[in-house]
Amino acid sequence: MTQTYCRRAVHSLTKSTIHLSNPFRPQQGRLFNTKRSHQSNWNNKSCIPFFIDPFTTNSIIMSPTVLHLRSETKPLEHRSALTPTTAKKLIEAGYVVNVERSPERIFDDAEFEAIGATLVPEGSWVDAPKEHIIVGLKELLEEKFPLKHVHVQFAHCYKQQGGWENVLARFPRGGGTLLDLEFLVDERGRRVAAFGFHAGFAGAALALEAWAWQLNNTTPFPGVSSYPNEDALVADVKAALNKGAEKAGRMPRVIVIGALGRCGSGAVAALRKAGVPEENILKWDMEETKPGGPFKEITDSDIFINCIYLSSKVPHFVNLESMNNNPDRKLSVVCDVSADTTNPLNPVPIYTVATTFDSPTVKVDGLKSEPACSVISIDHLPSLLPREASEAFSHDLLPSLLTLNDWQNSPVWARAKKLFDEKVATLPPSALEG
Ligand SMILES: NC(=O)c1ccc[n+]([C@@H]2O[C@H](COP(=O)([O-])OP(=O)(O)OC[C@H]3O[C@@H](n4cnc5c(N)ncnc54)[C@H](O)[C@@H]3O)[C@@H](O)[C@H]2O)c1
């Protein structure tokens, strides 16, 4: 079989370089047993590879890979795995990007249309051709029908979470594949894209607002909703912080643990942007917690922001006893960005529930002295800043997205597929029966 390039086809079809879908897959009903996919530039003009069938001498132009961006169905999820910026880059690289219209997404449908994406109806991924790759962010609705596509998303079913068998089994039952974004790692095992920075940023912003609110009010810190952009959030936090500082007669002292990580650096950035003086920000990581907690430095601070990645048992950072044992306790707000709320190893065992944007704080029970203390344990903090969080995440994911045309041969996706196969192998046979 001969591969060649057709200049005329290029001009009539596209100005972009076309990435082939996996050439081992049947294309237009044929199995092309060629070596690898190609991305070629010919005389500085983009070209579409096509193949001459030696038996019929027909030339067949390979179809570009189609990415189908789902409309998220999780309530109040405004973030998006693709943004107009990254969708444009994918289209320029030869992908077709279909974008479901979405009432919740922070980016208007028109922003995607303007960069050349094709708008398609909400929920239309279900009936999309099998070879389209479905890109989303969060869980699918809890339904039962088998999944036939390749799905790129966070599925939250690899750690034996409640109902994991039903979520995962839908893929093998339909011949589909899950490429889970939470486990997409580079050759050194580092995640290629994560929302941590904006989780920490949002957590620190809410913690400052809650601190100021509690100084000036007796009612719990009220519900919040997502911001159109970071500037709007920072302006609100600055105003709140000034009110709090006026009442307290000083700026708060804040301790961030896990300060060198993604969430931690986001938290520190928010504190700085809000105007907390540098000397009031304690930035702790592994080195500082080596002696083992509980730590008096936490109860001596007004605000504690926990941003660690919990991978093994560590002594409590703070607990009820350490709070009650410090007669000069100042701690009145904890933001547990790590949110290992129900994990028995949670090093911040002073609360038991996950809080929400509607009701962001939960009171710490059992304190013997003032001030009262509340905890923020929201597990979807980046949704407070959906635009910036999506842009940062999608930007980091883009190099991997650009290899989706040949994902089986792309190390990052091949690793995700291997993990998928391993997890599927752990499914009880009953789950596969549907
Ligand atoms: N609440 C949310 O909405 C939300 C969003 C994203 C991530 N998270 C969670 O936040 C956590 C952190 O994520 P990340 O992306 O920032 O991880 P990361 O790996 O980038 O950073 C973790 C940091 O914690 C430090 N650390 C680990 N154990 C420590 C210890 N015992 N003492 C001091 N420092 C310690 C590490 O050295 C590292 O600097 C994860 O559990 C993640 O699931 C929560």
From TrEMBL:
Transmembrane segments: none annotated. GO terms for biological process: lysine biosynthetic process via aminoadipic acid. GO terms for molecular function: saccharopine dehydrogenase (NAD+, L-lysine-forming) activity. Keywords: Amino-acid biosynthesis, Disulfide bond, Lysine biosynthesis, NAD, Oxidoreductase. Its EC number is 1.5.1.7. Residues 68-202 form the Alanine dehydrogenase/pyridine nucleotide transhydrogenase N-terminal domain. Pathway: Amino-acid biosynthesis; L-lysine biosynthesis via AAA pathway; L-lysine from L-alpha-aminoadipate (fungal route): step 3/3. It catalyses: L-saccharopine + NAD(+) + H2O = L-lysine + 2-oxoglutarate + NADH + H(+). The keyword Amino-acid biosynthesis applies. One of its GO terms (cellular component) is cytoplasm. Residues 245-377 form the Alanine dehydrogenase/pyridine nucleotide transhydrogenase NAD(H)-binding domain. Pfam families: AlaDh_PNT_N (PF05222). Catalyzes the NAD(+)-dependent cleavage of saccharopine to L-lysine and 2-oxoglutarate, the final step in the alpha-aminoadipate (AAA) pathway for lysin biosynthesis. Belongs to the AlaDH/PNT family. Monomer. This is Saccharopine dehydrogenase [NAD(+), L-lysine-forming]. It comes from Rhypophila decipiens.
